[in-house]
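Hi support team,

I've been running sequence recovery on a batch of backbones for a student project. Most finish fine, but this one hangs at about 90% for roughly twenty minutes before it completes. I'm not sure whether the input is malformed or the queue is just slow. I've pasted the structure tokens below so you can try to reproduce it. Let me know if you need the job ID as well.

Thanks,
M.K.
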């Protein structure tokens, strides 16, 4: 059996993130909690703006301006960007698994719905882990986002494989279903101790289990 290429989602797979970290800093400026800030932002249409940003339809400055005017936040672009970017921490067991897979000779691709500011942050913050990836497929660069079939086909093309030759790992059921609909094999990520046997069941050779 041909060795599959393995495509990892970034957020809540390679690294964890929490928007509330940013929202607490923004909320302080308005005298409200981070949760209240995020709830107010979502009620005002934040998700739609983020999706446009993550498909590359808005620049970082346009995005910052849109969010700030939506909620009445007066803050410099630099301060907005610094808070927006500082929301990630490494998922260490997955990072160890990525290193093992790389040493095993697997083609690894990162397939992330993300944006310019977050990608600039995580490329720097997780440079060692990301150095194991052959290619990064980022929604704002390719102009497509999960769960659109075009996004998964861009990942397969980056891996140099047919869709059927790829395994796509994502924490969101909707994104796994999108991968399967696009002809890839899919695994929903829960934790590394369930991911390892699921990869092995698809023929991926993992010589030792990374400690959880
Ligand atoms: Mg995710």
């Amino acid at each position: 059996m041909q060795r599959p290429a393995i495509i990892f989602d970034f957020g809540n797979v390679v690294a964890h993130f929490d928007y509330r970290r940013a929202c607490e800093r923004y909320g302080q400026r308005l005298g409200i909690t981070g949760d209240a800030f995020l709830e107010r932002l979502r009620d005002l249409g934040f998700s739609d703006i983020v999706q446009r940003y993550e498909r590359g339809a808005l620049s970082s400055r346009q995005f910052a301006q849109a969010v700030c005017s939506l909620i009445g936040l007066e803050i410099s672009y630099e301060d907005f960007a610094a808070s927006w970017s500082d929301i990630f921490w490494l998922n260490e067991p997955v990072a160890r698994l990525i290193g093992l897979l790389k040493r095993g000779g697997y083609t690894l691709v990162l397939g992330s719905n993300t944006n310019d500011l977050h990608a600039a942050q995580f490329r720097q913050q997780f440079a060692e882990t990301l150095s194991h990836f052959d290619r990064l497929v980022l929604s704002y660069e390719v102009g497509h986002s999960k769960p659109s079939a075009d996004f998964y086909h861009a990942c397969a093309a980056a891996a140099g494989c047919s869709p059927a030759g790829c395994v796509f790992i994502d924490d969101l059921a909707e994104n796994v279903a999108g991968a399967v609909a696009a002809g890839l094999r899919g695994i929903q990520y829960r934790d590394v101790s369930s991911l390892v046997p699921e990869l092995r069941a698809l023929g991926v050779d993992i010589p030792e289990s990374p400690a959880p």
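--
Follow-up from support: It reproduced on our side and the slowdown came from queue contention, not your input. Residues 7 and 109 are 5 Å apart (CA to CA). No action needed from you.
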